[in-house]
């Protein structure tokens, strides 16, 4: 409905002018940098191609979805998931096209586990016959599957699962049973309302001998189980299954619960590529090499880091654009009281929150890419039976998953607060991003817990290095030996972190080995209990991960293969130093204790950081542009690439808000809510409580 | 519907047993501590009394409200607000009863601004005649009001507001006008759908002389304006007003926008207790003493701190109870593989996240209480015309608001992550708490910005102390002089923080003065620009606020008036030290630089912190019990006082989740969403997009 607001414009300078000027005065080669960041698999071309398809379908419009209830968000999510699959059929999308379409849709898909963990498990854990039977049905979307491992009372400790699969030699069936409430499967995505099949992980109970009534527990094993009727989609008798209810984020996902009441499944339900039960003798044969599992875990974690860097880039894109446009207060030292207000991003207190995160997105990028490359190489070795690199890869990936998802999760909220009031509004584009991403510090290995794996590995290698027998088992042990011979010396000089990037990298490494050694002494020499060291071990892991991030960033800039142009390389070096100094400043004492950096240099860090931020500031807009996050994905009035911040905020409020279509009765003596409707609306709401 | 799950129980030991044992083995005197924390205005009795009323009314049931859409949440919020007001009439609730009822209801009320800022402004800024006219209508709920200051393009910088009130001497009216889109009022609570009146803050434009067509801007002033029809509740002509749409939190609140198109209001609309315009001469008379405004700001900030400590206590209550009950992994050093899993709270990596926050809730409590007392004293002096303490009170309250809301906001997410997977679920009781509270670091003075006020004040006092003329203006200046004479000396010995709580407190003070002095040197001696110092100034402010928190905590424990029993005092001292050591450890280098603590002592801090946490661990459940946060408010399966964590999580999922009442069609080739309903549901959802 037209009204007098239609002709109003924001005060000048407007966002489009401001962004144009920001872009004009920077020499960042956006095209080159974008290509540098996304060199593989035609990522940018694919993004544009899929974007074009989704942008035309009103089902993928995000404009008003924040007004839907949670049950409606699941329904919308299911409708979108179906449509994406139909579009994939129609356009002949390959696997990468499909994951691009899900990335741009930005809704977690109710089919998610059906596409990932479910078929992966069938492929890896199923034997040839099982794969041949199940995979075509899965690919056709006839079998819709999920993966049910975690239980109400049991998460990280898989050995503590309570759900049982007991072999009945008489009927030649397994009996799935949940003996307690805490044995209920819980959190399992796609299970709640969508799946008709599930991989169920249960304790395998076998008679101690063929005729025995005594059972032995062989630990958790995967079973493939039909859980709902293929026509009516109702749960089968003996199964209680449903959605666990609203969560922080992931509204379109039906995370589920499931209990079994002596539910019988055939012998063929047990996935038997590695473990088998002989149905006649009840004998059990073991996995050939469980390490393979770690291999794919590493691939998952590399992709988690690559995802984390896109999440950070997305948050920082919005924050940089908005704080460039937003004006607030004149310069306090300027005597001209008619001077224009300053761009918020000109304040060091805003820069210190946003620009180190911009640098961090790059740091994560180079390490994610390095891990993907390393995994690809290692995968080939694993396939040849060489598992020598698996342990270090697994150890590194644990610590990195922990640190990188922590950094990314925190970055969203840091950017949001840096944007002041509008950061709290729906136009920020942060609400769903934040609520969804906050799951990441917990899933795929709790961030605090998995640092133990990295630290444990490092302590073992340091122990071997101290023992110093034969040649080093791997490169990490070699670095421990080198550190012990050359750097583990109270008289060693600190490194020159401001004169040499190599020494800056070395400082991180020296500090990490120093912390490793201290942990080794506590555990192996002083024999302290493991649990009493947990806080220290997390620090060891983070220090190592920071060292890896700094190292890979430095290597990438000096890699002759990628060879960025001199202009680009200069900007990347500034970002590299900002990341390194900022990370160092936050944990400065460690670096002194390790004789890695002098106290005087550490005192200079805050000033150096501020200088680097001042260097990056004029290029911030083009640096975030280079990540090429489309407006469709940002879904943010504040972060629009065209700078129309205020126009869009007002449009969303004035024209897209369904609440404004209703006139309410504000007088407290009446229980009428909607003006003129009596108590009808109140009754409707009460019925939902 | 009864099913086989009805008879299932969680694996033992169950939550109730565990909590009973936790409570049995601790000597914390819960009743005494609760009385110690809530000694005034019968807080606990009132809580119980109001709880009883709300608990009986199904309108206040929180069980399923997370499934409502945002428009429904506003409707529910309005219905609850009306009911609370009717209950207040019915039961004769006083102001504190009413705010207790809102606290327990836990929904921000659409009437919120009508109860707070709106009448406060009329009372303080209105003249006698205006008060007499408006206050009875406001109290009767006939006039429903809000406070419209912030604009789309202008927040903290009030002088930058664009909305204009131009005096027309001919018609003797003001013309309210929004010249741009950025002049739109924005964020103003209660404005969007509820209010029929608003205090509008606009630039007062007066003719330079009675007949002149040139206008002078006299800055922002408040006007009381009818904005909607009293019968139809439709906006008056010349006003565009509405709700700004979904936000992170505050779903039941109609934060609004409003634009004026040459909208005319009478002379009497300008609130004229301090500023007046003579309608005949167009002359303007100025405020008597603008400092009074700061006075009430201090009161608001004291209450923000008291609220922050309840928010932290609430988060910590849930986290402590759940992590006591939750079991995960056996002790790695225990060779008995059948040993039970450990309570999660026994891990130092869980303790380090939760227990310092428990200590912090107490720290905030004592400082909030001290500020309230100080404000009450100062208020009496202000009323007598003595403004001498106002500056220090204002400066302290700015820094404390910043630090305390930051600590509280971060504490929610820290506790949530410490709870692992279930922390992400709706049963955590954290979702609404978090989403609502995240506004606090921004509102009532942006947390980063207002630290300038504290630092600016401290630098001024340090400048005067260095000048050393006459006697000190106030006690802060005196402490600067004392520090300059006694502690500003590179040879001074560090303090004995482990042997003496007095010296521990002194260490915080010495470090704060050291940072103040360094900032003074940069600004006043080296003449650095203000903006280049902002990061350092924030540090100055936080250091001073930490010093205040530690000081007030220490004073409260040694105050002869409150005199806790020896058992209680011992626990409080442990919490005091944990708070102090933990805070110090996070910023250890400052303390070395200030010669406040020796490097060796700082090295020992992590070990000392771990010891203190081990001392607190057995008492954690009873320490959180003492905050007496009712289950009704917690609304948390994880934090229930009876420990029935898993029973409640399952109940919410299996019996209260509306999504489980619908059977879906999971097959992608069909666009049917609800099984058997064709494409109807899809159409309904599409209509809402």
From TrEMBL, chains A, B:
MF (Gene Ontology): acyl-CoA oxidase activity; FAD binding; fatty acid binding
| InterPro entries documented for this protein | ACOX_C_alpha1, Acyl-CoA_ox_N, Acyl-CoA_Oxase/DH_mid-dom_sf, Acyl-CoA_oxidase, Acyl-CoA_oxidase_C, AcylCo_DH-like_C, AcylCoA_DH/ox_N_sf, AcylCoA_DH/oxidase_NM_dom_sf
Obligatory cofactor(s): FAD
Pathway stated in the Swiss-Prot or TrEMBL entry: Lipid metabolism; peroxisomal fatty acid beta-oxidation
What does the entry list under GO cellular component? peroxisome
Active-site positions, per UniProt? 444
- What is the protein name given in its UniProt record? Acyl-coenzyme A oxidase
Q: Which organism is it from?
A: Oleoguttula mirabilis
């Amino acid at each position: 409905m037209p009204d007098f607001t239609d002709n109003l414009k924001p005060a000048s300078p407007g966002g489009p002018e401001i962004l144009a000027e920001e872009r004009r005065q920077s020499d960042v080669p956006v095209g080159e940098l974008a290509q540098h960041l996304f060199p593989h698999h035609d990522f940018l071309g694919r993004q544009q191609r899929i974007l074009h398809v989704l942008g035309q379908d009103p089902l993928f419009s995000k404009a008003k979805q924040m007004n839907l209830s949670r049950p409606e968000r699941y329904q919308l999510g299911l409708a979108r998931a179906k449509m994406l699959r139909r579009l994939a059929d129609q356009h002949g999308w390959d696997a990468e096209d499909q994951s691009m379409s899900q990335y741009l849709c930005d809704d977690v898909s109710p089919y998610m586990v059906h596409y990932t963990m479910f078929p992966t498990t069938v492929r890896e854990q199923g034997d040839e016959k099982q794969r041949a039977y199940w995979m075509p049905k899965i690919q056709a979307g006839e079998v819709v599957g999920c993966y049910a491992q975690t239980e109400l009372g049991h998460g990280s400790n898989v050995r503590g699962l309570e759900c049982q699969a007991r072999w009945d030699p008489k009927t030649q069936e397994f009996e799935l049973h949940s003996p307690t409430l805490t044995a209920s499967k819980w959190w399992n995505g796609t299970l709640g309302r969508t799946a008709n099949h599930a991989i169920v992980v249960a304790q395998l109970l076998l008679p101690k001998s063929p005729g025995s009534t005594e059972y032995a527990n062989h630990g958790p094993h995967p079973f493939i189980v039909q859980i709902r009727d293929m026509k009516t989609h109702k749960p089968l008798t003996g199964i209680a299954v449903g959605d666990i209810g609203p969560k922080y984020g992931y509204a379109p996902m039906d995370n589920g619960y499931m209990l079994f009441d002596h539910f019988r499944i055939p012998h063929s339900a047990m996935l038997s590529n590695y473990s088998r039960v002989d149905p006649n003798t009840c004998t059990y044969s073991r996995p050939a090499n469980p390490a393979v599992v770690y291999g794919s875990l590493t691939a998952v974690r590399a992709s988690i880091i690559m995802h984390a860097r896109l999440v950070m880039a997305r948050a920082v894109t919005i924050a940089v654009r908005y704080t460039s446009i937003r004006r607030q207060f004149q310069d306090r030292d300027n005597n001209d009281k008619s001077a224009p207000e300053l761009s918020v991003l000109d304040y060091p207190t805003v820069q210190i929150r946003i620009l180190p995160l911009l640098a961090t997105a790059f740091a994560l990028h180079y390490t994610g890419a390095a891990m993907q490359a390393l995994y690809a190489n290692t995968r080939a070795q694993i396939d040849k039976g060489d598992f020598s690199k698996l342990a270090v890869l697994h150890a590194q990936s644990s610590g990195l998953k922990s640190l990188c998802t922590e950094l990314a999760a925190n970055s969203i909220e840091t950017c949001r607060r840096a944007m002041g009031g509008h950061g709290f509004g729906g136009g920020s584009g942060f609400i769903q991003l934040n609520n969804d991403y906050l799951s990441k510090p917990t899933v795929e290995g709790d961030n605090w817990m998995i640092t133990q794996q990295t630290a444990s590995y490092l302590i073992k290698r340091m122990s071997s290095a101290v023992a110093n027998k034969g040649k080093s088992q791997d490169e990490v042990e070699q670095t421990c030996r080198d550190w012990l011979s050359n750097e583990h010396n109270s008289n060693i000089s600190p490194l020159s972190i401001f004169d040499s990037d190599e020494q800056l990298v070395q400082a991180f490494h020296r500090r990490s080995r120093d912390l490793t050694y201290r942990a080794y002494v506590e555990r192996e020499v002083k024999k302290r209990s493991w649990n009493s060291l947990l806080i220290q071990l997390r620090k060891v892991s983070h220090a190592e991960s920071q060292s890896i991030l700094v190292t890979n960033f430095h290597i990438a800039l000096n890699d002759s293969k990628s060879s960025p142009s001199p202009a680009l390389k200069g900007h990347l070096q500034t970002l590299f130093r900002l990341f390194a100094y900022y990370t160092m400043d936050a944990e400065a004492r460690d670096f002194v204790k390790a004789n890695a950096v002098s106290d005087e240099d550490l005192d200079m860090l805050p000033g150096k950081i501020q200088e680097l931020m001042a260097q990056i500031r004029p290029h911030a807009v083009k640096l975030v542009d280079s990540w090429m996050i489309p407006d469709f994905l940002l879904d943010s009035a504040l972060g629009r690439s065209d700078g129309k911040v205020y126009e869009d905020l007002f449009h969303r409020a004035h024209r897209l808000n369904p609440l404004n279509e209703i006139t309410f009765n504000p007088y407290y003596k009446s229980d009428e809510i909607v003006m003129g409707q009596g108590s009808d609306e109140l009754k409707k709401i009460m019925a939902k409580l």
